[in-house]
């Protein structure tokens, strides 16, 4: 910064010229400010505020970071089953559909790299989203935070219902042929530990002989869980409707299929 001097004997015009030179050369012309402020002090304050709130850092689960600076745009893109909606200048809502069955059951997990598909189980008071709300126990299972969703299992996969959360205490999860727990299904089913304690789980290995319909339920309380559909060849209790609209359950009575062949 250049030094500016004036003598006591200088004229007022000389003093004005010297000060203006100082302002334009060393401070700059206020008319060229790109801020909304009209004074040097105001501009400095505005710049300080901008620098302080210049942005933020995003970090993912692998600790990779990305700095979002002031003026940058963070673009959140939805995909199948996931929607992202900006409803206000400071509100971003991300919604995930109940896609547990479709998203995890189609991954083959017996390849040695991932020996089972894990479901995190908690217990909470039922609400209207539970299929058996108002029936049986007032509590229900939540699977990955969703109230007792329908699940779809694939042959060859193993599924683990992790009951480590303390809310599972007194609610051991098992499998049954029907929602009312008339008959338990135990083939390929393994239990470990005490529900509500670390390491507790119920696990099922699905094979071609696993029934095509099962129910995951609490062995102590009624109707806490929901249904599992298995794409296997073991069909349980098939029913048919005849021409009069009458439902016939062939699991309780014998039947035969006759074939008529017209010759000639």
Put the structure in a nutshell:
Helices cover 13% and strands 30% of the residues. The protein contains 3 helices and 17 strands.
Descriptive report:
With 264 residues, the protein is of the alpha+beta class. The protein has three domains: 12-52, no CATH class; 55-96, no CATH class; 111-230, Sandwich (Immunoglobulin-like), CATH 2.60.40. The chain has helices at 12-27, 40-52, 100-104; strands at 55-59, 65-69, 82-88, 91-96, 117-125, 139-143, 146-147, 151-153, 158-162, 173-176, 184-185, 189-192, 201-205, 213-218, 226-230, 239-241, 247-249. The strands form five sheets. It has a six-stranded mixed sheet with strand order 7-6-5-9-13-12, with no helix packed on it. Strands 8-15-14-10-11 form a five-stranded mixed sheet. It is rod-shaped, with a radius of gyration of 35 Å.
According to DSSP, the number of beta strands is 17
Which stretches of 5+ consecutive residues score pLDDT under 50? 258-264
Give the structural class.
alpha+beta
| Helix-strand sequence | HHEEEEHEEEEEEEEEEEEE
What percent of residues are in strands? Answer: 25-35%
Summed up, the helix count is 3
CATH top level class name of the largest domain? Mainly Beta
Approximately how much helix is present in the residues? Answer: 10-25%
The CATH topology name of the largest domain reads: Immunoglobulin-like
Q: Report the mean per-residue pLDDT as an integer.
A: 78
CATH-scheme architecture of the largest domain: Sandwich
Biggest sheet overview: 6 strands, mixed
For the biggest β-sheet, the strand order reads 7-6-5-9-13-12
Number of domains: 3
Basic shape: rod-shaped
State the end-to-end distance: 115 Å
